[in-house]
Amino acid sequence: MSATPAFNPPHRILMGPGPSGAHPQVLRAMGAPLIGHLDPDFLKIMDQVRAMCRQVMRTENAHTLVTPGTGTSGMEAAVMNLVEPGNRVVVGINGYFSDRIAQMAERAGGEVTRVPFAWGSPVDPDAMERAIRGAGGPVKLVAAVHAETSTGVETPIAPLAKLAHDHGALMLADCVTSLGGIPVEGDAWGADAIYSGTQKCLSAPPGVAPLTIGPAAWDAIRARETPCNTWYLDLNLLETYWDERRSYHHTAPISMIYAVHQALALVLEEGLEARWARHERNGRALQAGLEAMGLVLHADEGYRLPVLTTVRIPEGVSDAEVRGALLNRHNIEIGGGLGDLRGKAWRIGLMGESSTPGNVLLALSSLGKILREQGYRADLRAALDTAAARLDQP
Amino acid sequence: MSATPAFNPPHRILMGPGPSGAHPQVLRAMGAPLIGHLDPDFLKIMDQVRAMCRQVMRTENAHTLVTPGTGTSGMEAAVMNLVEPGNRVVVGINGYFSDRIAQMAERAGGEVTRVPFAWGSPVDPDAMERAIRGAGGPVKLVAAVHAETSTGVETPIAPLAKLAHDHGALMLADCVTSLGGIPVEGDAWGADAIYSGTQKCLSAPPGVAPLTIGPAAWDAIRARETPCNTWYLDLNLLETYWDERRSYHHTAPISMIYAVHQALALVLEEGLEARWARHERNGRALQAGLEAMGLVLHADEGYRLPVLTTVRIPEGVSDAEVRGALLNRHNIEIGGGLGDLRGKAWRIGLMGESSTPGNVLLALSSLGKILREQGYRADLRAALDTAAARLDQP
Question: Is B329 within 8 Å of chain A by CB?
């Protein structure tokens, strides 16, 4: 018997930008025996996943599925399929992930206009409209991130979708961090394409990406003059497996499909509105507590996500030491800053199963105590009092 | 509480072309709580996965990792990263998956020469050499499938690698169905790039793809003049996460990394040679039994994979009825023919945990009885006698 490494991952409290803690029933679902990717029983599970994705994304789109990869695979599938060489693409850039959309659109051969916004502000429709008008010709695709995981900012999608349609363009919305945590209203927004991930507010492990494509976007994909850059995520091919043709394309990630099936069922059993209210209540309590402690929230007021809070790192406090102490002494993961916010802000997630009153109080208490050790005069009593009071409100 | 679909997948005996049955310890590993994709404990697990992948692929390649998608993502990562627009690529086409390599190389902008072989025969080095000489200029990449899942044929890779190197080209080998079942000797073959899947002879669920890139291939990837077509599977980016830089690229499919960690550990604990011998013994017993029953094996003698057997469907027998009866009455999944072999052959897998003496005898017994109902005079006694005797040999 060779010496093989032991497998013993620790039990963490996941309050970073994702993954969030998985629901025990989701973990248990992955323990179910494998069945074949063309087994009639598996095809039924796929149909149920499609149907539940539609419910959770609030859309009637026929072309709704999960791509066989993490959230970034959903982004790649959407962008690579919708953008053909020479297509004009306008992307609102207010964080790390919106810039990633732009990078992918460039790889797809798109002529990309990046419309910059502060990392901490939403995408502004007026600036986007000026960019669309100045793009030098018809724009094929307008894209924005609904919930920027790098900044904790929500950008309302409906006004951007209207703007895109007014100019004959399609609207792509990244809902990786929002789906299942705050309202995602696919059809009511008029979004033409939405993708998400499973490891945020759906509380499943990362590994598949819910994706929905509306009729106009689907027509554009069907009418491509050149094949999509990617074979693995070519939606014309993927759809032949997910629809009634059931053609072999790839071997589906069976256990991850089990996981997302259970995760979506749990979301619907809780009820979308109740789930949104839970995320709202816990997120606002955390934010009120952080401010009461004396800290400064980074995202613009009015656009702060309840599911992911960015808070500025106080002067003189060591980012690495604070996060290290949280992890090693309290088993709590929070996120560091990404991109422009590296070393400047922390990202505290309250997503899915991780969004609980207990985690709100635990985060404030643990962070407050560590900040005091670092010489920052955190007002811990005010933080906990304020948060506890806010937890009693709707 | 909404009416959400119940989750109750059946327990199948998986003897198709994959997935194979997962080891209970692998399923259990996926039930472990999630930790963050940048958690120090997770990074250790990633390092162990890299090290175990190297052992199982018999390579010292530094650039060894698992891509965040099923086996096809490994193929796409290898092809899209190694092929730049205008590069000449020579692919030996002896089945469905080798043709898929050619399709991907075309999407990457390669000038692809397809060298056709019978679906049931290996790739012949002499024909490949003629194609390389006739390609109209220097060839960048030679590719072949080690174990063709569509035909049950093994193609020796070492002679093709020598040939590629003699002509200044790199050698890419698809080892999706071979890894962990028959010898894969990455460095001894001289393969420059190898990818695999997890749901075949490694007996983990599908969802990640082991991939190793040798020094010359890595130099080629580093020296690309144009960025790779895919962002999600761009190895220059992926490597920054897997190596000591630990840059964020995507949220790793945590539970699938747990699964492949356990699966690789189980392979090494069994021992590669012992595991190869087990697959050889069970596969040859099945093949001997099928022939004793009166059936005709499809793949060329001498090149038949022990892990995946193709057997011709006798005249007058209904493909769909036989596979339906196996699934519905015996809970056994076998595979239908793919591509050119649709309706002409069955594919019976004995991979990983599914490669057991019990499954050999069960497959022969169940198939024999169903064939008799279909009017085919299967010699069931000879089949079982022959297989049982073969199971006692090495």
Answer: no
